[in-house]
Design brief:
This protein is mostly beta strands. It has no helices and 24 strands. Strands 1-2-3-4 form a four-stranded antiparallel sheet, with no helix packed on it. The protein has a four-stranded antiparallel sheet with strand order 5-6-7-8, with no helix packed on it. β10 and β11 form a beta hairpin. The two termini are 18 Å apart.
Amino acid sequence: NHPLVAGIYENEHWSSGTFIIQDALAYVSTSNEGVQIFDLSQPLSPQRIAAMNPFYYTMFAAPSRLYLWVGEGVQIYDASFPQNMQLLATILPDLTLGQLYVDDNRLYVTHGLDGLEIYDLSDLADVHLLGTVDTPGDAGNLLVDDGYVFIDDGTDIVIVDANDPRHPFLATTIDPPGDIIDMAYNHPHLYVASTGFYSDPQGSGGVTAFDVSIPALPRQFAHITLFPSITDIAVKGNALYLATISSGIAIYKQALVEPNHITWLPRLRRP
């Protein structure tokens, strides 16, 4: 009930962007020094163990792999030994800007108004398009689980059935309150952070939780009205973690399993 800062690594010259944790590694994108890689096995003293400096736009980390969209294709690195990243291949040189997700040898790419594309990565020498599907809005951030793709489509979450990647189709949409900021997934629950509506004096923004055990029939089971300055969300066990601009990290216990018995824990602030 008293979260504390365990460890900090500071560099006044960096402006951090995407932050991805994969096993005991953290990949941190910076605006001026590429990707910084940290060993988190000792959280009291995180260690920067490697850096990569390609100019890139989007990043995705999977076990032993790092994917960077660099403007002239997607670079795939062997991340088995982070201190000595090996470039395995550069694929799809004509790929337009999008968000990346890799699952089960398939690359999922969202392209804004052009929707979703799915590629076969089983042979890096022969990467090819499997299927596409348009979405109603502006396709951005995405998550993939068990053949379904959850896409931040601007004001809605679009759920795409991609069990047959050659013929993906829109299964349904979710309409959370306000504009979507971020989403997190912990099977079978999807958590969507949104800004809320300015016209609502009580503030409808916060986090809305959906049961997507049947993806085509999502069911809302909780909504927590929270801070207007949420930037990122994550889930672990039965706790919900919120990064905010002005309030540090807020932690909500039981929010994910007992929406009627939510316990607020003290905020974790940077010293």
